[in-house]
């Protein structure tokens, strides 16, 4: 192909999805709800039987055509959705741009080493527990709880927001992959959406009492620092069911609920899925 016409083709491919997203092209074989922004979850619908990929990953499509994917805190700006409408049809690709968000980065130097890295004696334990957590997050099950309007697992002052990161003695620590709600120990923690309990551990090193609820198609909630678990692995829970009591187990400096939402291993911002907290929040 001539260079100029190839360039024109590339340019038209880049521009096309913007028009599609505005509904200008009725031939788009899917609809999408959600923001193309780091930390967001997007829910799509297509004709059941169509195959859909997000950034090369094949997505489950529910019997009524729903699919879901999430944009990680550090999601790259270029994304694409690929759809194949029949085994004979050529797959079509739509590129999208993911908007970056600004995360607060805090540098603290001069800390004692034991405040920065966990002791070597617990390394094997931490690795073992990471395997458990990843296995729960890797599930791809047909539940459709992810389609509900999520509710707050507990209400209270928001004491920590998603995405912040601390750099201690020059070492970047894991960013804050969840929202913190300051609640006294023993506060009931509710399932934010329907699902199945995929992990219930009373005492993990970092997260203490920990519950993961599988909301289907890779979407899961993790609630940590719990003082008591009120559900076990395999329990089917409805939105609003009590699954645990809050606490400050694991590496927590005070009682609070830490709640994270994942799409597989991508870390999403719970506040993007929720109505505003129904109490006054920290400035
Ligand atoms: Zn937290």
From TrEMBL:
Range of residues in the leader sequence: 1-21
Keyword Transmembrane: no
Superkingdom of origin: Bacteria
Any GO molecular function: metalloendopeptidase activity
Pfam families in the record: Peptidase_M23 (PF01551)
Domain called M23ase beta-sheet core: residue spans: 175-270
Keyword terms: Signal
InterPro entries given in the database record: Cell_wall_metabolism_enzyme (IPR050570), Dup_hybrid_motif (IPR011055), M23ase_b-sheet_dom (IPR016047)
Protein name per UniProt: Peptidase M23
Species assigned in the record: Stenotrophobium rhamnosiphilum
């Amino acid at each position: 192909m001539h260079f100029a016409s190839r360039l024109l083709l590339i340019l038209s491919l880049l521009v096309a999805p913007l028009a599609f997203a505005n509904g200008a092209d009725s031939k788009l074989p899917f609809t999408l709800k959600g923001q193309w922004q780091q930390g967001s979850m997007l829910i799509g619908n297509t004709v059941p039987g169509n195959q859909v990929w997000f950034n090369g990953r094949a997505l489950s499509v529910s019997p009524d055509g729903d699919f879901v994917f999430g944009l990680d805190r550090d999601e790259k700006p270029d994304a694409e959705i690929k759809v194949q409408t029949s085994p004979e049809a050529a797959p079509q690709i739509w590129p999208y741009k993911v908007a970056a968000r600004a995360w607060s980065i805090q540098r603290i130097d001069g800390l004692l080493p034991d405040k920065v890295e966990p002791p070597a004696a617990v390394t094997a334990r931490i690795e073992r527990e990471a395997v458990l957590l990843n296995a729960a997050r890797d599930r791809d099950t047909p539940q459709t709880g992810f389609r509900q309007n999520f509710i707050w697992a507990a209400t209270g002052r928001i004491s920590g927001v998603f995405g912040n990161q601390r750099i201690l003695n020059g070492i970047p620590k894991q960013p804050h992959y969840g929202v913190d709600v300051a609640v006294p120990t023993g506060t009931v923690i509710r399932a934010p959406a329907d699902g199945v309990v995929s992990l219930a551990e009373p005492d993990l090193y970092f997260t203490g009492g920990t519950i993961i609820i599988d909301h289907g198609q890779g979407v899961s909630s993790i609630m940590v620092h719990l003082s008591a678990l009120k559900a076990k692995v395999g329990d089917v829970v409805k939105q609003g069911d009590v699954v645990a009591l809050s606490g400050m187990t694991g590496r927590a400096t005070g009682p609070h609920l830490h709640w994270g939402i994942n799409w597989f291993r991508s870390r999403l911002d719970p506040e993007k899925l929720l109505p505003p907290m129904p109490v006054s929040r920290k400035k």
